[in-house]
Amino acid sequence: MLPTLRRKLEALAERRDELERLLADPEVAGDQARFRAYSREFAQLEPLAAGLAEETRARADLAAAEAMRADPELRELAEEEIAAATARLEELDQVLMAMLVPQDARDEGGLYLEIRAGTGGDEAAIFAGDLLRMYTRYAERQGWRIEVESASPGEHGGFREVVARVDGRGAYARLKFESGTHRVQRVPETESQGRIHTSAATVAIIPVAEEAEPIEINPADLRIDTFRSSGAGGQHVNKTDSAIRITHAPSGIVVESQTERSQHANRDKAMKRLKAMLVEAEAEKRAAATAQTRKLQVGSGDRSQRIRTYNYPQGRITDHRVDGLTLYDLPNILEGGLDPLIERLSREHQVEELARLTDT
Questions:
Q1: What is the rounded distance in angstroms from the CA atom of residue 33 to the CA atom of residue 40?
Q2: Residue that wins the pLDDT comparison between 121 and 291
Q3: Region 233-257: what's the mean pLDDT?
Q4: Rounded to two decimals, what is the model's pTM?
Q5: pLDDT score for 351
C-alpha cells in the first residue's frame, strides 16, 4: 500500500477513536442530531478499525512464522504459515484500500427512477417500458419496493415518460451508475422487412432527499396545476382532477404525481420529488469540477451520455464506460439480472476513487 493511503487509513482510525470518545460524552448524547450523525460516522468507520486490527494480528503471525524458520525442525511448517500470513496480508491490503473510498451518505437510501423515450418514435417508447420492467424485476429480486408516481404511455406500448420511486436499503448505491442514454438495436414488431432499428431512452437516477437536508422552496416560485390522471388507479383517477403538476420557475424543473386518489397526496409526493431534484442539482454543481475527469459520473448529470447498448440479434449488452464490459446474457439481464454489470461498475468506480486519493 502506498504511504499516502496508509496515512489516510491511520487518520480515519484516529477519527474512529475520537468518535468513540464523543459518543460517550453526556453533552453529545443530549443532542440527538449530533449523536445520530456521530453514530452514523462511527458505524461507517468501525469495519475499518476491525480490518486494521486483523492486519496487526496477521503481521504478528508473519513475524512469529519467520522466527520459526531458523529452527530446521520447524522450517517446513514455518514456510506454510509464512505463505498463509502473506496471502492474508495481501487480501487485507485490498480490503482496507476499498474502505478508503469515500462513502456517499445517500448510498443506503432510495431513489427516483426517471425513464424517457428518446430517438426512435414508438420503438423508443416501447424500449422505455422494457427498461422500467428490467429495473422493476431487479428491485423485486432485491426485496425493494417500487412504485410508479407518474407515467405518460406511448401510443403503441411502453412510455414516453415514466417516473418511479424505489425504496430499499442500498438502492441508490446499486443503481446510481444507471443514469445516461441507453441504446437498443433490434427489429421492431412494426418492421415488416426485418430491418434492425436503433432507438434510445434516457435514464436518470435521483437520490431521495433526506429529511435533514436543508432545502428552502419559496411558494411564490411554484406554479401548481391539476389535471385528470391518465395512469392506472381505477375510475376515480380518470374522472377527477386529482393529478398534480408542479413547476419550479427558477430552475425550470417540472414534476408530476398522479397515482394517488387525492390532490393532497399527489401534491405531497410531487413536492418530495421536487426537493430531491433541487438537492441533486446543487450536488451536481459542487461536483462539476471533479466529474469532468471521471468516466463514471454519478447521478442525473450524465443522462445525455450514451452509456449502454442492448443488441437483441446478438444477445449482447455493452457498457461503453468500461473497456471490455460486454456480456452475452441479454435475456437474463432484461429479467433483472443486473448484478454482473452493477458490480463491475462499482469496482471501476472504486479504482477511480483510489487513483484520485493517491493524487491528493
A1: 11
A2: 121
A3: 76
A4: 0.69
A5: 80
